Amino acid sequence: MGRYSVSAGAVVFRADGRLLAVQRRDTGAWVTPGGIVEPGEPIREAAAREVFEETRVRVDVGPLTGVYQNLSTDVVTFVFRGRPLDDREPTSSEESARVRWLTLAEAFELMTGPFATRVSDAVAPGPGQPPLRTIAEPHLMAAKSAVGPPAGGSDTTYDAGRTGG
């Protein structure tokens, strides 16, 4: 029986409602920042570290907005809502070819379904516990084909005032 990897990330919203997105250098896919939790590292700290490593933006990690299990890759990802701690512009890194602040419409257009779902969950968390979603997607980090936004996509702007810690 294999072991699961645990990863952490954040959907980071600026005061104007735009969200932080990374275009991966290896696949060209647009994703929310995140990555593997190091041994002994608290999950929230891992989310903040991964966002900084990929974008050079320091963030306040807020509430958990979803847990995502990928049966094809044996990865469980904890995603939080966050906000930047300052007005520093993001910059690319070894892993990111480009980093941008996207509108929700742009995010839904550029991101694959699983990442658009993470954004949706962070925008409008449901009552009670954050969702636990299970997928079987071996190519989660692949770039999205030009097929338009996923079902349920929205052009609304997120109310950044809800990003508490």
Describe the structure.
The protein has 165 residues and is an alpha/beta fold. It has one domain: Nucleoside Triphosphate Pyrophosphohydrolase. It contains three helices and eight strands; from the N terminus they run ββββαβββααβ. The strands form two sheets. Strands 4-1-6-5-8 form a five-stranded mixed beta sheet, sandwiched between helices. It has a three-stranded antiparallel beta sheet with strand order 3-2-7.
Give, in spatial order, the strands making up the sheet with the most strands. Answer: 4-1-6-5-8
Determine the CATH superfamily: Nucleoside Triphosphate Pyrophosphohydrolase
Beta strand %: 25-35%
Q: Biggest sheet: strands, sense, closure?
A: 5 strands, mixed
Named CATH architecture: Alpha-Beta Complex
The CATH topology label is Nucleoside Triphosphate Pyrophosphohydrolase
What is the CA–CA distance across the termini? 37 Å
Give the H and E element order.
EEEEHEEEHHE
Count up the domains.
Answer: 1
Query: How many distinct beta strands?
Result: 8
How much is the radius of gyration in Å?
A: 14 Å
Q: How helix-rich are the residues, as a percent range?
A: 10-25%
